[in-house]
Design goal:
- The chain has 267 residues and is α+β, with helices and mostly antiparallel strands.
- Helix 1 packs antiparallel against helix 2 and helix 3 crosses helix 4.
- Strands 3-2-4-1-12-9-13 form a 7-stranded antiparallel beta sheet, with helices on one face. Strands 5-6-7-8-14-15 form a 6-stranded antiparallel beta sheet, covered by helices on one side. A two-stranded antiparallel sheet has the order 10-11.
- It has 4 helices and 15 strands.
Length: 267
């Protein structure tokens, strides 16, 4: 299965530390060597979201990709980040099949990445949202975008959109493992598979008082207190915990969680 990494913050933050360990899972500490990608939302176009987007994908393994090396050293600051390391199940190893995928709806970019395998998922898609590649993941994203456009005339509130996504995710999950991350620059939505025997998701919230953390995939530590203000909040979502000394919380099977401002909404 693929690997997912999502970050949501209340202030622009770089993902360098988390991404450094995460990238090692792309062919070094794990066997996910079929490509990778990352997307950063940026900008101050409106008060509640960032509309600008930096999007990088590569069909090479993340642990040896020169693009991944650039990202691990270049502290791009963002309030919403989604990254993915691919283990191909459907679709050949190619750039067009690398996550995360990006589409426009209601004048905003939407980013999506999936971990899992969907069997016999062939929804009818109209002209506005069609896959470029051949993955089940991109088909699922296109269908979600299509159904969101049908359900809402314009950008809904985070709460309204969460209700819609729960309904759509439950339908797709009947076809197999469906862990996904999704963002529009305003919030981060994370859905865990409903299959009890599959990978799920884990999250951690970093806030004052910040502590030390050590990567699981590399012998690197950081004291977050040296890099964060007292008011900073950061939420990180992954398929497997990135650090050995933080309290990662597992999602329940079939659960959709929403993070905004670096915190779990509804908690």
């Amino acid at each position: 299965m693929c690997q997912l990494l999502g970050m949501n913050c209340n202030t622009p933050t770089d993902v360098t530390f988390s991404f450094r360990g995460f990238a090692q899972r792309g062919g070094n500490t794990d066997h996910h060597a079929d490509g990778w990608g990352i997307a950063f939302f940026e900008g101050d176009a409106c008060e509640d979201c960032d509309r600008g987007l930096r999007h990088f994908v590569d069909h090479q393994p993340a642990s040896t990709s020169p693009v991944a090396e650039l990202i691990s050293r270049y502290p791009i600051k963002s309030r919403n980040v989604i990254s993915h390391i691919r283990k191909a199940t459907q679709g050949r190893v190619a750039l067009e099949n690398c996550h995360p995928f990006v589409r426009e709806l209601w004048g905003r970019y939407w980013v999506f990445a999936h971990n899992g395998d969907l069997a016999d998922f062939a929804p009818r898609l109209h002209g506005n949202f069609r896959p470029v590649g051949t993955t089940d993941s991109e088909r699922a994203f296109c269908w979600i975008m299509q159904e969101m456009a049908k359900s809402h005339a314009g950008v809904p509130s985070v709460e309204e959109l969460s209700i819609t996504l729960r309904e759509l995710a439950a339908k797709i999950a009947t076809h197999g493992t469906f862990n996904f991350l999704m963002s529009n620059g305003e919030a981060l939505w994370a859905h865990a598979s409903s299959k009890p025997d599959s990978q799920i998701l884990y999250y951690v919230e970093r806030k004052h008082p910040f502590a030390h953390a050590t990567l699981s995939d590399e012998d690197v530590s950081i004291n977050f207190a040296d890099h964060a203000a007292r008011t900073d909040r950061v939420a990180v979502v992954v398929t497997a915990p990135l650090t050995t000394n933080e309290n990662w919380t597992a999602f329940a099977p079939g659960e959709l969680k929403v993070f905004a401002g670096g915190a779990l909404l509804g908690a």
